[in-house]
Design goal:
There is one protein chain. This protein has two domains: 10-165, Beta-Lactamase; 175-321, Reverse transcriptase/Diguanylate cyclase domain (Alpha-Beta Plaits, 2-Layer Sandwich), CATH 3.30.70. It is built from ten helices and ten strands. The chain has helices at residues 10-20, 29-42, 77-80, 102-105, 141-165, 175-191, 206-213, 215-232, 256-270, 300-321, and strands spanning 46-52, 56-63, 69-71, 87-89, 112-119, 125-133, 196-203, 239-243, 246-252, 285-291. The protein has a six-stranded antiparallel β-sheet. Strands 8-9-7-10 form a four-stranded antiparallel β-sheet. A hairpin with a 2-residue loop joins β8 (239-243) and β9. The longest helix is centred in the middle third of the chain and has 25 residues, at 141-165.
């Protein structure tokens, strides 16, 4: 058996998947109707909308299969992440990648597989719309086109969701996207007993900058601040512009000392973010840190609220020194 290898964009791909907030959610008719059509049009006993997560593939829709997830190392869909066209396996027993796979030698006895990648606007493959049969078989050209057309319906929904989760000004996630992505990231941390820390960042006296220099200058500074975050934070760590002049970063696998180190690097990197010309203002920013405790933070909302309080306490301390 050949377990699927990680694609080159794995960190960005998984972050994009987390941001959608689809993992571990109830079935939805908009996805179920596609798998029903796929079974009927392709005369297949199983059709799945499969999303490949960190260590598993999870089925947003599963028509003809009783389980909702399988190990990523065993998955056929994990192999499909490396391309943008259909992964086609007419007879898995004759394919060296899958011949001794437990999903082939045992239940659900996969013989035939065809999976069309679900690709984000940025080119990241999140999973597949796939059909499975328990007998070897082939698809003709029309059936292959049918599978591509049905996958495009799922892709369209995914890309519509992406647009609703992005901040148009900075290109970061917006609050809704961050909450969805952060909830999934905390789920992974909780399951694997990992540390996590949340940074809440706020630009000081930003309203006065807009008032004095104009919104075009303020927008330019927000974009430069976002670039500083992107260049400092790992691709796998969710970050967002929550609104106005407030930003957040969730550092996975980061305890208190790790979070302080990241904050120091941010200060060093973002100290350069300021005047765009002689007439533009310099600005300062405040930060609050909240460290994830599964006993106190049942959701990302609670962790975010604590970091927000810490940020305002920090800002208050600075003002008392003025």
């Amino acid at each position: 058996m050949h377990p699927p290898t990680l694609p080159a964009d794995e960190d960005q791909r998984f972050q994009a998947l987390q941001s959608l907030g689809l993992l571990d959610t109830p079935p939805e008719e908009r996805f179920d109707v596609v798998t029903r059509l796929a079974r009927r049009l392709l005369d297949a006993p199983v059709a799945l909308v499969s999303l490949v997560a960190d260590d598993r593939q999870w089925f947003k829709s599963a028509d003809g299969l009783n389980t909702r997830e399988m190990a990523r190392d065993l998955s056929f869909c994990g192999h499909a992440l490396h391309g943008t066209d259909i992964l086609y396996v007419p007879d898995a027993t004759q394919d060296p990648r899958f011949a001794d796979n437990p999903l082939v030698t045992g239940d659900p006895w996969i013989r035939f597989y065809a999976g069309c990648p679900l690709v984000t606007a940025a080119g990241h493959v999140l999973g597949t719309l796939c059909v499975i049969d328990h007998q070897p078989r082939e698809l003709d050209a029309r059936q292959m086109d049918d599978l591509r057309d049905l996958a495009s319906l799922v892709t369209r929904d995914i890309r519509t969701m992406e647009l609703a989760l992005d901040d148009e000004l900075t290109g970061l996630s917006n609050r809704r996207g961050f909450l969805a992505m952060g909830e999934q990231a905390l789920h992974v941390c909780r399951r694997n007993s990992m540390d996590a820390s949340l940074l809440y960042l706020d630009l000081d006296d930003f309203k006065s900058i807009n008032d004095q220099y104009g919104h075009a200058t303020g927008d330019a500074m927000l974009r430069r601040f976002a670039v500083g975050l992107e260049e400092t934070i790992r691709h796998s760590d969710p970050r967002a512009r929550l609104g106005g002049d407030e930003f957040a970063v969730l550092l996975t696998g980061a305890g208190p000392s790790d979070a302080n180190d990241v904050l120091a690097r941010l200060h060093a990197r973002l100290s350069d973010v300021g005047p765009t010309d002689n007439a533009s203002p310099a600005f300062a920013w405040s930060a609050g840190i909240a460290h994830y405790d599964p006993q106190r933070h049942a959701t990302i909302h609670e962790l975010l609220q604590e970091a927000d309080r810490e940020m305002y306490s920090s800002k208050g301390r600075l003002r008392s020194l003025d």
